[in-house]
Fold this protein.
Amino acid sequence: MIGPQSAIIADLRRVTPPASRSPTLPPAVYTDPDVFTLERDRLFRRGWVGCGRGDRWPSAGSCAPVDIAGMPVLITRDRSGTLHAFANSCRHRGTELVGAPCRLARIVCPFHAWAYALDGRLVAAPRMESACGFDMAEHGLHAYHVAERAGFVFVSLDAAPCSIDDWLGDFEAVHEPWPLDQLVTTRRLERDIPCNWKLFLEVFNEYYHLGSVHRRTFGAIYDEPDPPDAAAGNFTSQFGTTSGTGALKSGDQAHALDSMPGLGGRHLSGTRYTWIYPNMTFAAGREAMWMLEAWPRAADSCRAVMSVCFPEETRVVPGFERASRRYYQRMDEAMDEDISILERQQGGMASPDAVPGRFSALEPSLANFAFWYAALLAA
């Protein structure tokens, strides 16, 4: 484990506002296995972690496992519609209970058939009569805190976290113009990416690379962005106008779908990019929202999840399936272009002579995350 006097900690303590004077995060935080372990303990096992959209658990009995930096978690929705989160581990001998998204009346361990209600209560334990003093009420699943806000699901592995509303602060107020809680996921795609989880989220939240990495697809439609909002919660957010919609490639602008209901004014002419710390980010455009989750696997790899969401009113329009494919293609091409540069960035970060850089004026959201990250890891 990195010690308090290490060079990495010293570099992290230099990452402080303002962005115009601060160095970037040290390259070692993208490559060092000990830093990866520290992130797990200080970022993912404390506070709140975004776990995607609530419609991944659309109805009673919906279950889906989530790996939170090596912690196997099971999220369920019970018959009353309430979400629950548990350790994805049987209370008998630790077997993983659910390996893939499914719909269940109750959770049954595949090893010895212990069964649990969707709220985590143990309801069946075959052949346990001989265990002296065995009480099923004492062997329910280990529960975690879970919350749903603006259509997003959050889990905390912390025994006593702050409230989700304190964690998010003014998040919902900043995003009030967009009907986030009413959007439905029309496509969800998972990919393994050969780079550190932070790099994957950083590239989504900066304008600096648009003119080079995405110059042939959609980079030219983005105007100079506004400064980031003064966020009061654990997130950063920045709005910028576009020539057309940021959700389509330059050559597909004539095929844009209708705008979100209720969206008006300047919000119709741009995109808001938001990063909810530590691992979930999204872009809210005029007609769609596209969202990324980054789940750490190792210091140099992560599992990425991309979700594309539209209003229900748009999803039911005739021809939506055909029209939406242009949006999905834009998202896929953007990710492919980003991955091609992220692989090279990850390789460069591994150089023993790599050193912290400086933030450009087009990377303020990266700086805001870096300040948040450095303060927690260097504490």
Observations:
- DSSP finds nine helices and 16 strands in the chain.
